[in-house]
Amino acid sequence: MHNLMQDIPLRVSRIIDHAATYHARRRVLGRSVEGPIVESDWAGIRDRALRVSQALAAMGIGRGDVVGTVAPVGELGEL
User: Fold this and answer.
1) What would the DSSP string read from start to end of 3-16?
2) Does the N-terminal or the C-terminal CB of the chain have fewer CB atoms within 10 Å?
């Protein structure tokens, strides 16, 4: 969907791509389900997101399919 402020859709993937392109090594902090604070950067987050996307595609899951999660696995939800 396009709005009046920009000519491209605003998607989470575009935000992550922008952050990884312009702020690749900027520190990103989160908390694991076990409680400790974990650290990554935007390039690492984009890399993990692409791996998840490729894994889902390999399982036959495509655009428009619904995917749910029960809980993150490992550090920052990594597969």
Assistant:
1) -SS-SS---HHHHH
2) N
Six-digit token string for 57 = 């595609």
Region for 31 from its dihedrals, namely left if φ exceeds 0, alpha if ψ lies in -120 to 50, beta otherwise: beta
Name the residue type at position 60: G
Question: Residue 42 is encoded by which pair of tokens?
Answer: 């935007």
Q: What is the pTM of this model?
A: 0.73
Classify 46 as helix, strand or coil.
helix
Contact, 56 vs 33, CB < 8 A?
no
CA dist 31 and 38 (Å) reads 6
